[in-house]
Write a structure and sequence with these properties.
CATH architecture: 3-Layer(aba) Sandwich
Mean pLDDT: 93
CATH superfamily: HUPs
Strand order of the largest sheet: 7-11-6-1-4-5-12
Order of helices and strands: EEEHEHEHEHEEEEEHEHH
CATH class: Alpha Beta
Strand content: 15-25%
Number of helices: 7
Largest sheet: 7 strands, parallel
Low-confidence stretches: none
Structural class: alpha/beta
Radius of gyration: 22 Å
CATH topology: Rossmann fold
Helix content: 25-40%
């Protein structure tokens, strides 16, 4: 089975994240970046499927030079090869443009039986790219999988909701997005880290994919951030001394905040 996993290099959630003052896009230069945590579950699930049978895992990412670190981490985990799409014209791309670039890359890779993504990126948290990508590729989409099995020519997932769990089956090839409930991603071993140095990674531009630069980037985005205001620091809490009326004061506070 040949699996393509889409991954993203995102700003570290533990860092002080912000926006680039020049264009109000996410500031990716002044903070450390890493493979999106939610994408690690997608990589792990792909590796488990291949290890249970045969095939290979290809990881693909979009971004500037430092985005190659996301591919590197996936290769260290055990993926077989990587593709890094890098082009200055991509900066500021929205979800439709991102799905377009990924779709053309997956077509160029060719032969994918399964495309796996995380449920969302930890910086954008939109969860819309998997659906857009499936539409562009003409594949059935089974999203938000907390369990995944492949049997012959079909893939079956379990999707857990607040009120019920659904079992959904689709024919292959298909696209699946996975949640953080599906597995426990492995840590790269020393052997995996060393092996990753010899694994092939291709770097493609928009021209390599046949994508017109006018279709992507900030100027082509359907939405833009017009203004950014830094969130004010949290105010110090109020200490209430219980003098027999603590419950009343608590109820009054909750009511004033419209919690009750």
């Amino acid at each position: 089975m040949n699996i393509v996993v889409c991954v993203k290099h995102v700003p570290d959630a533990q860092s002080e994240r912000g926006f680039d003052a020049s264009d109000n896009t996410t500031d990716r230069e002044s903070v450390d970046g890493l493979l999106s945590e939610l994408d690690e579950y997608a990589v792990e699930e792909a590796l488990k499927l291949v290890e249970a049978g045969e095939g290979e895992v290809t990881v693909v990412t979009i971004g500037p030079d430092q985005a190659a670190d996301a591919v590197k981490k996936a290769l260290q985990m055990g993926a077989d090869k990587g593709v890094h799409i890098s082009d200055d014209a991509i900066a500021g791309s929205d979800a439709p443009a991102t799905s377009l670039i990924l779709a053309e890359a997956i077509k160029k890779i060719g032969g994918a039986d399964l495309v796996i993504t995380g449920m969302a990126s930890t910086d954008g948290t939109m969860s819309v790219v998997p659906a857009m990508l499936a539409e562009r590729l003409g594949l059935p989409q089974v999203t938000f999988a907390s369990e995944l099995t492949v049997d012959g020519g079909s893939v079956t997932i379990r999707r857990d909701g607040d009120a019920a769990s659904e079992t959904i089956t689709a024919s292959l090839p298909a696209l699946v997005s996975v949640t953080d409930q599906i597995n426990e991603p492995r840590y790269p071993s020393f052997k995996g880290i060393m092996a990753a140095k010899k694994k092939p990674v291709e770097t493609w531009s928009l021209a390599d994919l046949g994508v017109d630069a006018a279709q992507v980037g900030l100027d082509a985005a359907w939405t833009k951030v017009e203004d950014v205001t830094k969130r004010p620091p949290r105010e110090q809490g109020t200490i209430v001394t219980d003098e027999g009326d603590g419950g009343t004061k608590l109820a009054e506070f909750l009511a004033s905040q419209k919690f009750i």
